[in-house]
Amino acid sequence: MTSQPQTAVRPAEKASLFGWWRWRRIEGYLFIAPWLIGFVAFVLGPFLASFFLSFADWNLVRPPTWVGLEHYRTMFTNDPKYIKSFVNTVYFTVFHVPLILVVALFIALLLNRQLPGIGVFRTLFYLPSVTAGVATAILWRFIFNYHYGLLNQAIGLVGIDGPNWLGSTKWAMPAFIIMSTWGFGSLMVLYLAGLQGVPRELYEAAEIDGATAWDKLLNVTIPMMSPVIFFTMIMTIIGSFQIFTAAFVMTEGGPADATLFYILYLYRSAFQWLRIGYASAMAWILFLVILALTLIQLKLSRRWVFYAGEELT
Amino acid sequence: MVSTKKITRRTFLRTSAFAGTAGVLAACAVPVAAPAGDGAAAPMMEDVTLRMVTHYGSPVRREFTTRVKDIFEATHPGVTVEVEVAPDIDVRWQTEVAAKTLPVMLWDANLFCEMAAQGVFLPLDDRLPMQTPPVDMDDYNVPTGAECMVWHEGQQIAMPWINGAPLLYYNVDMFEEAGIERPSDDWTWDDFVDVTKELTRDTDGDGEIDQWGYMQSTRWDEHFAQWIFANGGEIVSEDRLHTPLDTPEAAGAIEFLYDLRFTHKVWPLAEQMEALQALGIGSLFNGGRVAMTYGGTGGVGGFNRSVTDFTYDILHFPKSPATGQRALWTFMQNFAGPIWSEHPDLDADLAIALGGPSSQRWAGRTKIQVPIYTPAVEEDYATKPPENIRVVPEMFAEPGVQHLPIFNGKTEWLQTVFGGELTKAFIGEASLADAITSAVAEGDRILARQ
Question: Any signal peptide, and if so, which residues (chain A) (predicted)?
């Protein structure tokens, strides 16, 4: 029996190996260079620039003027509209996120069957989420019309006098929450995929133990789906904090700032009022808020998110 | 010995990646012109392309820009003018300023003066006498308060284009049906209320009002300025630090408008307007639902072309009972090119052509706005229709004509004060007193930052 002789690497070979490894590294960087250049130029660069601009006053015409923390101070002490936009966005998020998650899961549960033509229904339910944002907003503006809109016409059939949805400070935000729910298709697809991954044996075992449909939902489906639900919850919260198109097209933040969302106010500050520094500061605050919320959710997820294969504590 | 080394897949991929990256970098490189040698002349560019951007895309305005472009290209062989309509011009120019690619553009007052103060615009003085015929600026009626839109530190940096002003349009047929004679030029706010009440009615007998006496927007300062100025008030203080909408004069004017909508009910509510628009009645005046509307002088040409179902005409605004006067504000637009132009003479010539006498006369004939070139107002604009077009030159001849205030940060100020805070009252979401109070507070807060 022979064994592989241990060969010591001689200096000449070491140099060659080092050259080879270095060339492999360079090769790798060359492959990713186009993306890297784009990332630095269009993401990292503006990212850093906005950070420094958040401490300056700049309107594109005059040179930037250093103002330190003035923008951050103004936001929280001398800008009622900023506070209003933040509150509006939180209001929207608090109601929009659970609603869309529940609706998406409910529809996914309904569509998680092997029935003839089920693909057609899945497609139909998914279609709204791929329609253009502006077109959707214009469509819903008609739906919410006080006198002739589809919604008030429909509820009028059962004797309910519909409100002036987009013209009332009380009903404008509920209108947005209702409207935003129709884009549940993307979440539905993710939940469908997640449901397909729940082992049948778990349901069979639960049935043997006498579990009802509701028991199976609570004790099998949702725990097994918890990673997907967790992911969609984080992404939906991030998305809802950035709502812009619908408000820009439908109400322009009205009536009376009732739908003045954070990003809409940021957009106005930057591109209509040329307060680039202030808008940059707003962007950084939003980033920190979303980061904080995500970290909190990650921390809390240990209590309710179950990953298959990990030990139960 | 012949090499039999094959090209491996790795070698091929490595070479391709290297070549691809080099190609991307080369494509991003900015070409640098070869420097001229000592004593050598710089290479001549035979074909020059100039850019011109405007934010009005109506067929008439396109006709105007096409006309100027064609004439300019005919008189400047080798020059091509690219005309672009940019509805998002407020965002567009920012990108162009940052990239120093700003073309010759049509400007409004709100940003122009601040940019002029930063030296962004191309001086035109040397080129004015070189035009055929030479341009004499004494023939241009630049309104008081708008000087910064034309001159900066003694240099002319823009070519005035038009003077816009408010106009009161009315439906002649509705007045005749109601048996109301055309109001006199000296009518008052009280007369105005009486007339609008008579013209507000249920025409089809279903119990719902479907014809109103008056309508206007509340979005901009210009929609309130007419009434506030006439009543002796101001919309911003002389030192641009205060928003004096809470003075008796200004508040009285705003209350007059508020009462039209909520007390006299001669002005459709927001939801009523929205309902009619949902039925496809885009303009309530054109659609025959409103007897009088507050518009601008730029609407005359449009109404001449679009209003075919009834006869329209224009009126002097009524006089305030407090002052016995009416007021006139104007806003000016101009054409200007950038200081960093690669072809400064050509860009200057283009800006001058756009605002020159020939263009002014064309604007007057088509009535897309009131020309600033005085002969064009008298000889071209002041021609019928409408029947009483004489109202416009008479308005400009009255004393006290002033340009809407121009100051830094005005866009945010007017959108917040008028389109935001004051509008809350006009859509029924706040009391008038609260709306005026918050408008003043917000306005002052914004002015204090400038």
Answer: none
Q: Which DSSP letter does residue A42 get?
A: I
What digits encode the pLDDT tens for the residues B280-333?
Answer: 666 889 888 999 999 888 888 888 888 888 999 999 999 999 999 998 889 899
What pLDDT does residue B114 have?
A: 83
Q: Which fold has domain A72-304?
A: MetI-like fold (1.10.3720)
Q: Tell me the pLDDT of chain A averaged across its residues.
A: 90
Q: Which tokens hold the place of A26? A: 């360079």
Which residue is associated with the tokens 């628009």?
A: B277
Whether B145 and B218 map to the same domain: the answer is no
d(CA B278, CA A21): 69
**CA-angle at B266, arms to B171 and B295, nearest 5°:** 50
Beta bridge partners of B168: B294, B315
Helices within A167-221 (DSSP H only): 172-181, 185-196, 200-208, 213-216
Taking the C-alpha atoms of residue A239 and residue B331, their distance in angstroms, rounded to an integer, is 41
Instruction: Give A186-195 pLDDT, tens digit per residue.
Output: 999 999 999 9
Nearest-angstrom CA–CA distance, B263 and B221? 23
ipTM: 0.77
| Tokens found for residue A25 | 């590294």
For chain B, give the percent of residues with pLDDT over 90: 50
pLDDT tens for B392-447 read 989 888 877 888 998 888 889 999 999 999 999 999 999 999 999 999 999 999 99
Pick from B261, B213, B238, B188: nearest CA to B423: B261
pLDDT, residue B369, reads 86
Taking CA atoms, what residue in B is nearest to A147?
Answer: B275
How is residue A32 written in tokens? 């990713």
Q: Quick one: B188 and B142 in the same domain?
A: no
**Chain A, chain B: beta-carbon pairs less than 8 Å apart:** 86
Measured CA distances, B309 to A173, B303, B305, B306 (Å): 40, 11, 11, 9
DSSP letter at A58 equals -
Which residues does chain A have within 8 Å of residue B274's beta carbon, measured at their own beta carbons?
145-147, 166-167
pTM of the model: 0.82
**Nearest residue, CB atoms, A271 vs list B24, B90, B424:** B90
Tell me how many domains chain B contains. 2
Nearest to A287 by CA among A45, A43, A47: A47
The closest alpha carbon to A259, from A96, A77, A73, belongs to A96
Q: What would the two tokens of residue A202 be?
A: 């778990």
With tokens 């090209």, the residue in question is B7
Is the residue at B241 inside a domain? Answer: no
Host domain of residue B86: 48-162+332-381
Predicted confidence at residue A19, as pLDDT, reads: 73
Same domain, B190 and B295: yes
Q: How far apart are CA A133 and CA A136, in angstroms?
A: 5
Strand B155-156 and strand B166-171: pairing? unpaired
| Long-range contact set of residues B65-71: C-beta below 8 Å, sequence gap at least 24 | B67/B362, B68/B353, B68/B354, B68/B359, B71/B353, B71/B358
Nearest to B229 by CA among B214, B216, B244, B240: B244
Interface test with A, best of B91, B148, B339, B427 (most A CBs within 10 A): B427
Chain A positions with Cβ closer than 8 Å to B: 27, 30-31, 33-34, 37, 59-62, 78-81, 142, 145-149, 164, 166-169, 254-258, 268-269, 271-275
Instruction: Tell me whether residues A30 and B429 touch, CB distance under 8 A.
Output: no
pLDDT digit string, tens, across residues A152-161 = 999 999 999 8
With tokens 């209108």, the residue in question is: A175
| pLDDT tens-digit readout, A158-210 | 999 899 899 889 999 999 999 999 999 999 999 999 999 899 999 999 999 99
Residues B214 and B347 in one domain: no
Q: Which of A74-88, A238-252, B125-139, B174-188 has the lowest mean pLDDT?
A: B125-139
